[in-house]
Amino acid sequence: MVQAALSGYSDLPMRRLAREYGCPYTLNEVVLDKMVAEGGKKMRRMLAVHPDEHPVAGQLMGADPSQFAEAAGTLVELGYDAIDVNFGCPVKKVLGRCRGGFLLSDPATAIDILRSVRDSVAGRRPLTLKMRRGMDDTPDSERNFFSILDAAFELGFAAVTVHGRTVVQRYVGPSHWPFLERVKRHVGESTILGSGDLFSATDCKRMIDETGVDGVSIARGAIGNPFIFNECRALWAGEPLPPPPSVIEQGRAINRHFELMVDHWGAEKASVLFRKYGVRYAEMHPLYEKVKMAFVAVRSAEQMREMMNTWYAADGDYPEVTRRLRPEALVAAGATFECGV
Most CB contacts within 10 A, which of 16, 107, 116, 314? Predict the structure, then answer.
């Protein structure tokens, strides 16, 4: 199991927390190749790697093979243990600039990018690829998918993550797990990770059991839910699924996440940035609506402490904790998701 590259989410604090809760491998949020080349203070902070989070991968997105190659070399120099190429992002502004999922409709350019990255990294790090199952459901789209997939392994890429939705689907409708089974059969012993609709440890084990993929890439299911990794470990070991984390256990994880955020971003910025994580943590709280609004109202570290003392107090009297909301409930609540999620 890995924590997927989550645009706007999988920064250094989230990755470190995931590791503390049992995740063996994480990916930084996707970055544009040209932004890596331009550098700057903001980009250095965004690309920071901590000594205690190895192995960690950096994920790149772009459209120009030479620029992609230069950025891949930079990520190696910055200390990333693997370089991941994004051919899966379905966001409209990304597609309009011939990046991400668009490249599944242009296999010649996609393969040029893979070759350029391979040549730039020159065996210094493993290379991996993230794909969706095609641009759409047409036969041409499927042929393009398999030509890129085969080229990746021929070029020496170590693994490919396949999301079971098409690019035009974005996040609407179910992830097509039978396609993942076909892909795994097609590549034989080469490593395939599956992605899409993994919101619990049970989902993760079921994907592996049903499709035969070698592992799972957990995206939306990991936001505000670091517990999923140790829950997966329990199921992998043949143990029963642990009970859902108590409010106190949730609070412990939230406080640790916020502490890591403050260390990395500073208290003022962390207090604002944490709200998007907080509303996801709230999904596990038995008083979800009230807690969600409490997170939204946070504007400072002091308000964060007050909110935690109110809703995650050790002596609080809370209803019984159940499993978090399913994705359809999140959509109904107005949640939106971006590239990589």
Answer: 16
